[in-house]
């Protein structure tokens, strides 16, 4: 392809200034260099681009056609250059988030609202499309940040701890376990455990409580929505283990009782996973800082990781 951006800039400068001398000064070129570019275009395409004896210079139909292209293309090029420069300095970018934690919406949405005010140029998106196995999507670039409590050792990924939290068991207020201060793994052997539709190995109640004790619940029922899980527990259809912050709003009333998992409780840490190559981006660091501020302002019983 012969036609280049420099040719478009030449035509735009000629049209704007009306003379070769002024156009050359505007482009920081010598007049002979500008004339050489124009003559090269004319000879290559066999056209005349402007009438040389007119003052100011008048473009021919061929020149007008090229000027029209310049006015369409150059603003797009400049806009792209500006965006790339800001991305290179970490001022803007894309932040597509995937969540494993179904109950994270309570703090994630306020975080995104505050973040958007400070970083309006960052393209935000939130998806659950990869929420049950999001790390391959993070590695491949389909998402840019994953909220997870299950970090993996991977040189391509970095996991920043957000906060630690306690998981609690919720039972109906008239449940046989409701009067206990805490439950032992064996207490759940005869229970229906209601969980999110996640592999049990990735749930705290299994990985940190039941499985080490070699205990399995009598049945597992999988439900996606937290309010529905709570309704089922309150009606005696089973028990559930959720982060303390997710259960906080359901403490009011007398339908549920919250119990510790074990005498000392079960705590885990929530992480934000990103690609290692993006770890120094300002807009990602700002999101992590905003998430920390929002969580510690709004969530009960969380601690510094």
From TrEMBL:
GO BP terms: namely: methionine biosynthetic process
UniProt keywords, alphabetically:
Amino-acid biosynthesis, Cytoplasm, DNA-binding, Methionine biosynthesis, Transcription, Transcription regulation
CDD domains in UniProt: PBP2_MetR
Q: Which InterPro entries match?
A: LysR_HTH_N, LysR_subst-bd, MetR_PBP2, WH-like_DNA-bd_sf, WH_DNA-bd_sf
Q: Where in the cell is it found?
A: Cytoplasm
Pfam families in UniProt: HTH_1, LysR_substrate
A single Gene Ontology CC term: protein-DNA complex
> What GO molecular functions are on record for this protein?
DNA binding; DNA-binding transcription factor activity
Identify the residues that the record assigns to the HTH lysR-type domain, covering every copy. Answer: 1-60
Q: Which family does it belong to?
A: Belongs to the LysR transcriptional regulatory family.
- What protein is this chain from? HTH-type transcriptional regulator MetR
Source organism of this protein record: Thiolapillus brandeum
